[in-house]
Fold each of these.
Amino acid sequence: MSHIVIVPNHEQIRNFLNHHRLPLYFSKPALQHITEYIAASTAKGFRGKVVDIAEYSDCHRTTIGHFLSDGKWDESYLQRIVKEESLRHVVQQSKQTKEPIFVIHDDTVCKKTKPSLQAVSPIEQTDFHYSHLDGTVVFGHQVQATMIQCADTTLIHEIRRYDKAKTKADGTAYTKIDEVCDIADTMPTPPHKGYALVDAWYTCPKVINRYAKAGYHLVGALKTNRILYPKGIRMSIQTFASHITRKDVRLVTVNGSAYWVYRYEGALNGIENAVVLLCWPKEAFQNPKALRAFLCTDVSLETETIVVYYSKRWPIEIFFRQSKGNLGFETYQVRSEKAFTRLWVLLSFTHLYCTIGLGKPYLFGDGLRRVRKQVKIDYVRYVYECGRKGIQFTDVLTQLKLA
């Protein structure tokens, strides 16, 4: 092959890496691998597998596998960029728009096939976890994600594996609640109010108090067996709801859907005072199976505002779906803990690039399409430059692994 054969130069991706000063901390081969990962992961059909990345690289898949599992590079620096940039961007946006900052927590299970007893090298740190999406226990990695939101911008902040075998210094279990509390300690003081948005698993006094210390209120779902004290009488939400009549509720419309809502303000177990909203879809009032309950520690908020704020938790569900469908979040096959942890960091970094790394903020889906288009343009330019330099077509095919 001619020595003047060039490789596709993903200039826009490289500019993003240079902007965050990666050349000061990573070797040229590592930078090339990161660039190729972003180009590969944003392509249609990406499954998070090493062979998918190899299609966009000059290197053999074993070299890429070594880069992920044993390569000498610091993935924590990329993770720090994601965390710092997401916070910097939303804080700046909050100052400009005077809108609140929302911190969204949730977890998911990246399902894996249970290995046979004869498996020599199964995927590390897999276990059985309950999946809310499947409604049953599944095998795989349980992952906690945190997203930061302000106005129309929602950014990934952190992805971390939940290790249920981890313990604290006193020997007690380190729970998902403890994970969220530790993240709360790292949040900046919000310029114009801040809210943590969580599902029923995380709505508890420990999380509420930790976020209050950081300057944030909490808006979260509640299980209907939680205890209220209406007029000092102890009863569950579900029992209390059975006594509510049509004259006690009012119709609230949020995002085009109408709900009957009852507002309670008072004490809960372990919580001195908060607002609890009991909600039914318009067509299902007093249907016990349709009842949903939400808590807000900011009692000054209007009922409609609380419901709207809780609906802002939905982007994290979209993140899980898009990451599994487009970025190989569930279909990766690397086996070592270091390798799949590095893949998650690269996934977060790619998500950041697609949202705020293209000159202006984009929704992830829109940014992903723009990156895909640019990567195709880079390859067309590469072929054009090869033709202009008189490089043989067979050499080009070999370079692109099409020979």
Note: The first strand starts at residue 101 and ends at 111.
Amino acid sequence: MSSLKVTPAKSFDTAIDSIAPDKSISHRCAIFSLLSDKPSVVRNYLRAEDTLNTLEIAKGLGASVEDDGEVLKITPPSQIKEPAAILDCGNSGTAIRLYMGFLASRPGFFVLFGDKYLASRPMRRVADPLRSIGAQIDGRENGNLAPIAIRGVEDPDGFDYVSPIASAQVKSAMILAALNAKESSRYREPHLSRDHSERMLRGMGAKISEEDGAIVIEPMSAPLAPLDITVPADPSSGFFFAVAAAIVPGSRVVLQNLSLNDTRVEAYKVLQKMGAKVSFELKEDKYEPIGDIIVEYAPLHGVTVEENIAWLIDELPALSIAMAYAEGKSVVKNAKELRVKESDRIATVVNNLQKCGVEVTEYEDGYEITGSEMKSAVIDSHGDHRIAMSFAIAGLRCGMEVEDIACIQTSFPNFVTLLSEISEVQVGD
């Protein structure tokens, strides 16, 4: 088990042009390339454990991949093949759930699995609606836990599905299944979740529209156009350094070439409401709006976060660090989904903040944090990359030791390198 020691930082003013490429978009590039009959070209693909596993699964399904270290050329197979081995999704809920949707509408037998953390995450939220259109899906606890076995169905029925949760993963899985259905399908969710799938698939020629609060998906009449995309930097990864600037007095950071999609920058807007100086500079807008985000230190105050939770669910652990340094009380509500991420993020945030001397009250769907000065502590990441990186950022203010940091490689391989440019860090066994 490796650990990371972080010493307090002095004020900093820096521009970062090497934030990890967007994880969500990278996953989708590998999977969506299989919907075309021509090679897709992907620049700036995230080369982290999770996204490389997703790419390997595409290869296991028959795609060929050329990689010169900068550009991927993904050539889809003429027909998806049945792999001779299980398909390893590593730590990624995005990979397993999106591939479930993709494979449910393809004839053949497929088995999806991952690491011990992924094996404990719920899958019936995807399995049950896919079963309703004819796919045979099984796994532990009646298909709720991996390994997930799928016997896909060719030309499944269309559907009119109302999801009880706002989840980009569930939505994307159902859209992928709907593209091969016999007739049009409709999908509804309580609130709009992140919309990368709809944007990218429309850009490839898929007929996806909105009507009376539902997403309407028309079946593909022909293979989609290939992707020709440069993956922007990941705003969820960049947010760690946004919080760093927001909590270290006198600091400023320019995060370059990030996705500025409204469904991806909500956490920055919360940080802005808390008092940090945050501005957005749009540079281009093709598949995604892309630009820079500038964050400057200012005294923070407490805030209640209870809306658009699906837009900032991944950033809440890092946001909790800002809340811990804010004057007054901060409250997170309607975030029960945090309990089924790579760890139970409500419990891990609460327990680790308490180790740091912060007053925290845990609720079923969130927590209340009373701002104060955090104290240095030894933190258990529970194998969760976002917990590990969030508390490493806290160390820039108070010093911190984070245990079990290997998980950082799943999403942000150069995180420690960038952190070391701000303050002294030490990696140990």
Note: The CA atoms of residues 307 and 334 lie 8 Å apart.
Amino acid sequence: MIDYDVLVAGGGPAGGALALALRASGLRLAVLEARPGGRGAAEDPRPLALSHGTRLILDRLGVWGALEPVTPIARIHVSQRGGFGRVELDASAVRLPALGYVVDYARLAGLFAQLLQEGWCDYLPHASVIRSSAEAGAAAVEVRLEHGTRRITAGLLVVADGGTHAGWDDARTVDYGQAAVTARVAATVPHAHVAYECFTEDGPLALLPSGDRLALVWATTPERAQRLCAAPEAVFLAELQRAFGGRLGRFIAAERRGIFQLGLRVARQLTAPRAVRIGNAAQTLHPVAGQGLNLGLRDAWELATELRRSPREQIGTPEFLARYAKRRRLDREGGIWFTHGLVRIFSGGLGPLRLARGLGLTALSVLPPARDFLVRRMTFGARG
């Protein structure tokens, strides 16, 4: 007899959402977490823009209320620095309560870590997979944990550890030559629940409403990102002012500066015998348009749906894995190439490229059906 029907490697947002979605399924479930208690998340400075579709998922999981207060995004203002064209996306125009919600990564990750330790699943702390093996047609996957002190068998191994699982390093990668600076900043003009995405020569600069301040995600060259993080606060604010302009008045304070590298990493194979990847283990995206985490949570929800509707003896079989891969193909590939295309089109300062960007933004602003399609795609994925 196998130890578990489903073994989830990684208790972050994607792995945690999958586990919670299976809470009342009757399946034997275990979650491995190398950093128990959400350690490391508390120092993670990244802001998250959760789509309204993600809010619906978290509501169904019973965790949305515990995230409050969050800051809703009523409108998104998109423009390019030094060029014409802009578009405004409005929640009321598409009959949504909000286009998104801003929350700290630390709060979301910490909440999942807390819920996973309440006793309803086997939570294995200080544990990570160092090797997994299953032959084609095998009835289970065998997993050896760190230090080789324990072996576990499962009908399905779900890799949700951000892509660090040994033996799964076959990924297509793109280096955008960018790093992101994150910070919390204050401005003299209230944000009024408007998010700004300003495309600069170095990369996109996003300012998201976050409480009474703004969460900054500023993509630029790695060298400049290092200088910005090390600069005195006054110098940092002056640089931000030059890059963004005066739509929010003057920037007067900045705190919690951080930096992380940007790139695209896509698993060549979503599945292996008795194993599947979700979230950042399946695809790690550029933060432009805030698609990465939302896509990963849809991975978790769709996999849970497939698990709940499948007989126990079918879980992890080639047929099961093929159904899941087919179920995710359109949304996953659409999210990957939508994000990749935005980075390529909206980075760089060549005149023809600025012209093309301006024309594209202008077309969106005067074509409501195209604008509404874009909003629904960003909110609900390919099924929107």
Note: Residues 4-49+104-171+265-345 form a domain with the FAD/NAD(P)-binding domain fold (CATH 3.50.50.60).
